[in-house]
Structure of tRNA N6-adenosine threonylcarbamoyltransferase:
Amino acid sequence: TDALTVLGIESSCDDTAAAVVRLRTSGADILSSVVKGQNNLHAVFGGVVPEIAARAHVEQLDICVEEALAEANKRLSEVDAIAVTAGPGLIGGVLSGVMCAKGLSAGTGIPLIGVNHLAGHALTPRLTDQVSYPYVMLLVSGGHCQLLLVSDCRTFRRIGGTIDDAPGEAFDKTARILGLAQPGGPSVEHEAMKGHVKRFTFPRPLLDRPGSDMSFSGLKTAVIRTRDSIVADKGGLTDQDRSDICAGFQDAVADVLAEKTRRALQEVKTELGKNPAFSVAGGVASNAKIRAKLETVSSAFGAAFLAPPLALCTDNAAMIAYAGGEQFQTGMRSDMTLSARPRWPL
Ligand code: KG4
Ligand code: ZN
């Protein structure tokens, strides 16, 4: 048959993951997708600690692979290719995954393919919705913020992106400034629900400039300034103050992402052709307010809006298996010289 069974391995940040995906002539099935997070390990430090992450990956990788194969009801010998995230990410974690995949490949003779983590995110709407090329993708996570034109499984054109912090980072910092729990995205979103969007107006950086580049570091400064002036005034923050700041901050991020997405779609209008499609991925894409504004922009443009389920928006190995599978089908392979690339632009 033409079907291809791929084992995927992901360990570039703070999730260890393995998955088995079966690619058919069109579309794919996720036979299993195991993700083991490390939030509990990093929580007390207020952020991901690379050394702790790497050690946890080493401990979890074999277990994840075994569980993924068992859940998929496959033996390793039934796998046609092993796809592994080879970057970008934290060097220790990426290395652990690459070593694990190389070991499996060397021991079995199953072909190996190193996958760019961002390509995994960018190809997710093909895995979930069988969207056809080309389409526009907004990748928004704790470490990334890019608008991409995806033309095939190895051709990505950067239309725009952040010039400093990623939006997820801004959410995390805002949470820290306000004394809310990490990761900051979900806490800030939760607080914002009780807040008044109009009480504080935060800047919309770079909206006055043409193009699709974004900036989020100034927002963090604005949040600090707002907090400090309330504290100077009243001696501390009330819950309502906190909620109002969260609401204003979230609204600013959503506006910037939406407007820059609108411009990006406009910029590649010709390339997108008659049936334009737009998709999002990354942890920040799980924010309901942000999703809603993106969907509005997308439908105003006339594009199909594809929002993969949450579990496939955040880091997982199914997207790596899928991306590796599609690249494998075009003849791409890696060999035992495959190495970890902590920096690896698409
Ligand atoms: O994609 P992801 O799970 O991991 C990587 O960064 O690769 O994204 C995590 C980021 C964190 O910064 C987190 O605060 C943010 O996504 N995030 C959110 C929400 N959920 C997670 N940001 C805004 N709203 C959310 N609901
Ligand atoms: Zn990611």
